[in-house]
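Hey all, quick one. A colleague (J.T.) asked me to put the iron/sulfur cluster job into the tracker so the inputs and the structure tokens live in one place instead of scattered across chat threads. No bug as far as I know, just bookkeeping. Sequence used:
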Amino acid sequence: MTGIERTAFGVYVHWPFCLSKCPYCDFNSHVRHVAIDEARFARAFAREIETTAARVPGRTVTSIFLGGGTPSLMQPQTVGAILDAIGRHWRVAGDAEVTLEANPTSVEATRFAGYRTAGVNRVSLGVQALDDASLQELGRLHSAREALDAVAVARRAFDRYSFDLIYARPEQTPDMWAGELELAIREAAEHLSLYQLTIEEGTPFFGLHAAGKLKTPDESVARALYDVTQEVCARHGLPAYEISNHARKGAECRHNLVYWRGEEYAGIGPGAHGRLDINSVRHATATEKRPEAWLMRVEANGHGIVSDDGLSREEHADEFLLMGLRLSEGIDPLRYATLAGRPLDPHRIALLREEGAIVVDPDGRVRVTSAGFPVLDAVVADLAA
Ligand SMILES: C[S@@+](CC[C@H](N)C(=O)[O-])C[C@H]1O[C@@H](n2cnc3c(N)ncnc32)[C@H](O)[C@@H]1O
Ligand code: SF4
């Protein structure tokens, strides 16, 4: 035991392939013009799961997340083989949340029933926008109609589903976004992820933006879009439980809560990150990003890990703060003190409270306020100093 209260254990599995590369995306995703040998990848996933489970045995898996890339390009039997391997090497809780990230095309929707049979019980659809001009601009391969049809298939196949939208898109106004959100909320039963468009270095959008050919909303419009997001979602019963994530009460994504609450999780597959507690030390692991290089490493060594850093108490505590303050529920300062070996600085807490950036609940939890969220990085830096 590590002394850390262990209530959840997540397994993240990364499928690194996409049909095409979206111009804004800097995730570890790759396009291949030859067929992917899924059976070979499935064997490598199973092998890496076995090796990881030997390092952190005896855990009960409470959530699994198949992310990407585009996991909905996998055949259902590949997903089944991965889930079976997880079940062979760890105990999986009877009510474990098993999410698969899907792109909302008609072809992918035809596989949803197969995923459900394989053991998936939740899908997260990358809808991104509900108007065709924006979808085209984002380089997406689906139309708004096709996305909504895929949402309808997801609704029939799964009790739980969510979808992603990107806002603060070029030319987007708060009024347009409010209308789009209202439609999204009608279609989303319980959960929505709403991401502000980030211009990531190294992507085609970065070059276009730098050249002045892609104009994103300025700071004040971006702030108005953020405020509209909070207001419309809260009004419809989907308040933010994390900066970019909205859910009805009880419908939060349990897997993502594992990250934000600083729990333990295994990272499986190319470019996956993990956080494992071994001999009372939190380890930050990362695997080889390039899919074929990862495959060869796993076949040779049983795992694709290229970095495995034991975190100092301070580093672990800072990460706990950084992740936990993204949540509307905030953090338990006693847990911070246990991890860091010292409490949060009461003077800094007092100052941030005076500024209205944080509140301290009667039970002691420290939470960022709606005024503090837009400047979260500064708040965290201040508290961690
Ligand atoms: C790793 S992607 C995988 C989802 C799936 N492949 C898809 O595109 O539908 C997860 C989500 O991150 C979001 N995302 C990716 N790049 C982004 C960016 N530059 N700015 C904001 N959101 C982004 C998108 O909403 C996307 O659905
Ligand atoms: S946004 Fe999704 S589909 Fe597009 S490149 Fe990134 S991971 Fe692939």
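Adding what we noticed when we looked at it: Residues 24-25, 27, 68, 70, 101, 103, 126, 128, 164, 166, 195, 197-198, 200 surround S-adenosylmethionine (ligand 1) (CB under 6 Å). The longest strand covers residues 91-102.
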